[in-house]
Design goal:
CATH architecture of the largest domain: 3-Layer(aba) Sandwich
Largest sheet: 9 strands, mixed
Radius of gyration: 24 Å
Protein name: glycogen phosphorylase
Strand order of the largest sheet: 5-6-7-2-1-8-9-13-14
CATH topology of the largest domain: Rossmann fold
Number of helices: 21
CATH superfamily of the largest domain: Glycogen Phosphorylase B
Oligomer: single chain
Strand content: 15-25%
Bound molecules: pyridoxal-5'-phosphate
Function: Phosphorylase is an important allosteric enzyme in carbohydrate metabolism. Enzymes from different sources differ in their regulatory mechanisms and in their natural substrates. However, all known phosphorylases share catalytic and structural properties.
Organism: Gimesia panareensis
Helix content: 40-55%
Pfam families: Phosphorylase
Number of domains: 2
Family: Belongs to the glycogen phosphorylase family.
Distance between the termini: 26 Å
Structural class: alpha/beta
Amino acid sequence: MEVRSIAYFSMEIALHDEIPTYAGGLGVLAGDMIRSAADLKVPLVAVSMLSRKGYFYQKLTPDGYQTEGPVVWNINDHLEEMPQRTTVNIEGRQVHVRAWRYEVKGISGYRIPVYLLDTDLPENSDRDQTLTNWLYGGDSSYRLCQEAILGIGGLRMLNELGYDHLNRYHMNEGHASLLTLEMLDEQRATAGRKQLTSDDIDMVRKKCVFTTHTPVPAGHDQFSVDLATRILGRHDFAEHKNIFCCEDSFNLTYLALNLSHYVNGVAKRHGLISKHMFGHYIIDSITNGVHAATWTGPAFAKLFDLHIPGWREDNFSLRYALNIPSAEVWSAHQQQKQLLLDLIRQQAGVDLKPDILTIGFARRMTAYKRPHLIFHNLETLRKIAAQAGGLQLIFAGKAHPNDGGGKELIHSIFQAEEELKDLIRIVFLENYDLQKARLMVGGVDLWLNTPEPPLEASGTSGMKAALNGVPSLSILDGWWLEGCIEGLTGWSIGEDAIDPEHRLDGEKDVHSLYEKLEKTIIPVFYQQREQYLNIMRHAIALNGSFFNTQRMLSQYVLKAYFG
Ligand SMILES: *Cc1c(COP(=O)(O)O)cnc(C)c1O
């Protein structure tokens, strides 16, 4: 058994195109973090869920309504079953848990083991067998059962597997924070006591690290104390109210905050917002990144290999992209654009044109992301497109099955497509996933992001675009507050301001978005190509070299793991 000192827990993780154990940004971040840990040989082991049916497979009706089905995949093609078993006590039943192993291999061959937990065992009841089926599925009781399996089952499984040198437990979001309860119980049992003491709490805090990922209140899991008592079989919630509870609910974010010695948000602004949200906790920030080699498309990877040898080992060296000749940047970009257009022809049966300014927008379809903002005034948009000689828009993204508003947003994009089709080509790609994300961020001319501030904790797809020289046009929120140098790495929409009155309908933001497109971006793209290429190079050199998980993981190592 390899010696590991850090355990990384995440409800979702994007490991491979054919392994559907992720829903979106959080899972992709977890996967990218592990890929960088393998590159940098950080002695880490990861724990996540098997999610047999994935998050869901998205299909869209001809008028743009989402339907959900299971993702079909072959577990045995990718994972190795481990012989060890453990159990978790849920609602008074012993639920049996097994683990499947996946290995992430780094540049020099170092491997990080990832264990995916699974309850589909004949010893379990029919219902318990389904507990690891759907990522973020079911009701709140299903969710808490899953969280018990991840946190408590995950920790016990690591013990069974023989990882006995662990001294850091990193909770990627609050979903995993029940592991702290198990650690407290272990401490108490080892000391042969019935009561928890403040020493137990100090011991656990020393070992735990917590990263919070969302300023949206619904993103923080909380449960009634009754439900938590019933499912977890604990009766000490009231007694330890100061650690376990907040007001009247059992809140997994507060649990993690109370039991971690290091807590961070995922961008500078998000760290500050989190501090305001949670009051008296010390909350640092480590800005997210993406795994550079994973998100750089094939033509740019070739270009970097030629001009910046060693860029995969040392992402900082991407700053030398400033010296790559424009003609080569343009040619790599056009090659990757063609790959995207080929996919669109195959999937959607639409022929987009390689020489027309093409804008990409792909992320979770939910109200605060405002995917329809660009369609706020169709007449203005028509006018802008006519002047430009055309405009093409590519959308993708899933709405959570219970998010009716998010589903309506997808439908509204289909309606806009119908209304604008004489002038603007609009395509909505079904079932956004890793492969589609790679082609989109690598193949559009401009990456658009229009969230309602301050709700975008970080955002990472714009970082993926930057690695491919694709500039962003984005609201100043999340990572873009750090990454935007106006007119040099991309463009901002609106100002850095949070206005409680008006931003959801976004009158001012829309005005700014149209103006930037019409007066700046379109003229530069069509008439000052050399300047556009200069911006593309700066996106790589200034943002690709920094907003990557190699830099991010180094900061976790310094501040959280060995700090
Ligand atoms: C990167 C990525 C996301 C997250 O994108 P954001 O910009 O953070 O919203 C979601 N889904 C997939 C498939 C991705 O690759």
